[in-house]
Structure formats: structure tokens, C-alpha cells
Amino acid sequence: MTVSTCSLIMRGMCLFCIGVFFSLVLNLLQVQQEVIVFADVVDNLFKSAWWVAPSCGTAAAVIGLLYPFFDHHLGEPHTYKREWSSVMRCIAVFVGINHACAKIDFANNMQLSLTLSAMSIGLWWLFDRSRSGFGLGIGIAVLATFVTQLLVYNGVYRYTAPDFLFVRSWLPCIFFSGGVTMGNIGRQLAVYDYVDEVKQHRE
Description:
- The chain has one domain.
- The chain is 74% helix and 3% strand.
- It contains seven helices and two strands.
């Protein structure tokens, strides 16, 4: 096994653990606020929602590895605010967006969705600003929302006040900002590999 493969596996495992941690914290917040209710009609394994954390962890690992991969292969290296302090601020804003959708009362769902859309795009503008990051964020939001619609349609869980088919209209904003956040974490973890690669080329 090569050094680069080992590094890729280590980054994937680290991203998986981060994704699991985020899913536990953010899912707990939404369940406590009764935004999401897991169905009682499904199997006991699904009642405990054991699958949420590993699913989110896997998604986080894939997203965190895809961002630096596309940066490298599209010839658009991400250089804007490449330091851990910026990544931590990005995480704080992402958690704040989740907190807003779960706890702040808006006049209607449309106002909430527009506010969260602006906040999500603001997160991308503040901590990313790359075309690949924006494109991947949109793709992740569309795909993840579609998968969530299927899960809700099949009764795995439900939203208490759906207004966008079976889910809430602000859900794509959460997925978009989550994709950008995990992408920035993945990029920062990949910095060390990039530095080693440059050194090898120079030698």
C-alpha cells in the first residue's frame, strides 16, 4: 500500500468520524425541537435510527474527499482562506444555520427558506468562493434532498410540517451548507498531501 493510499484512507476515516459527530449533534437538535419524527411503524432497528450516523459519516467522507479531488483535476486549486481557523469558523456558521432552522420562529416557511438560502450562499462566499465548491454544493443539495424525499415517502421518518413535497423547503440549504463545510474540512486535511506532492516533484 502506497503512502498516498494510506493518507487517503486516513483522511476518509477522519472525515467519517467528523460526519458521525455532526449527525449526532444536529439530529438531536432537530428531534428535540420535533422537526423530525422517526416512524414507529418500521423495524426496531430503524426506530433507534442507528443508520443515520454511519450514513452521514459515509456521506461526509465522500464529500470531503471529492472537493480536493475536483480542485486538483479541474486545475482550480482552492487557495482562499486555507487555514484551520477559517475552517472552524465555517463549522460554527454551519451549526448556526442548523440552529436557526430548528429554533427560530419565522412568520412562514418561505421567509425561513429565503433566509437560510442567503445564509448558505453567504457561508460559501465567506469560506469557499470556488466554482467547483458551489457546483458540488448544489449537486449535493439536489441529490441529498431527493434521497431524503424517498426515505420520508417510504415511512422511515417524517417531518412535522412538510411544505416541499414530503420535507421542509429549507432542507436543500442545510445540505448545501453542509457540503461546503465538509468540503472545506476535506480540503484542509488534504493540504499536507499536496505539500508532500509538491516536494516530491521538486526533488
